[in-house]
Amino acid sequence: MKWILYVLTGWSTLVTGLFLASLSSNHLIQGLVMSGLVIPIILYLYQHVYRLTGVKPKAPVYSWKRLHHFISGVILAIALASLGFFIGNFQGWIDFEKWHPSEQWFIALTLNILFAFFYEALPEEFGLRGMLYDVLRYRFTAWLSVLLQTLLFVAFTIAVGQIQVLFGLAPGVSINVFYIILIFSFGICLQLLRLWTGSLWTSIGFHLAYLEIMRFAVSPHLKGVPPIITYHESVPEIGLLISICMMIIGGIIVSLVILGVKHFRRKST
């Protein structure tokens, strides 16, 4: 039953790391605390996972040799979001008003990329889509492992919010039905991206690009950051809905198609 211990330890590490990081209001400190605590522990636990499974790959999913897949994840997220904007504009749901010059948002975007990478994308993907999935996959089928990992992702977000409330802090996110559906779908998407490329860097790149698109193009007013583009919506929040659907649902569909093709090719050979 060691696999249960590894799952609980990995999940608890993520919860503890995010809670401790949220105690600071400084983005630099938040990123350093989150990645500084989570990444070393997850890499240490990975060595025990390899002994549990009896298999240690020459190039693990987090290997630098697979780093080029990071670009694949970034490009896919940008392409899907751009397609969503194009469809929205073509249908008359979105009317582009102004593209803002880079000097207005470039520095803020660069700093937020560094923050989001170390505070969110890197540690969450290493822990959830990486180690926790691999432990679950040792015990269950691939699709059940994807589902269980995603439920752990949802539970991770809810647990941190509840601990923050318990200590008299404002929760980092507002937990409601829409948000739970959103992060559940997002977790499925990210895990499938890792599966068809065999690289954790794909989901890291997609995760990071998704966050920056949402913060600087889709809903900059929510974060108070300089927008890359401003547009008029025929229906309130239609741009947000289109972008989320295109990136998350589109990412799931693309992943399932590629996984299906790879399965068919393996079966035929």
Automatic annotation (TrEMBL):
Organism of provenance: Lysinibacillus zambalensis
InterPro entries given in the database record: Rce1/LyrA-like_dom (IPR003675)
Transmembrane segments: 5-22, 28-46, 67-93, 105-122, 143-167, 173-193, 200-218, 238-261
UniProt-listed Enzyme Commission number(s): 3.4.-.-
Every CAAX prenyl protease 2/Lysostaphin resistance protein A-like domain range: 109-210
Top-level class of the enzyme under EC nomenclature: hydrolase
GO molecular function: hydrolase activity
Protein name per its UniProtKB record: CPBP family intramembrane glutamic endopeptidase
Keywords assigned by UniProt, alphabetized: Hydrolase, Membrane, Transmembrane, Transmembrane helix
Pfam families given in the database record: Rce1-like
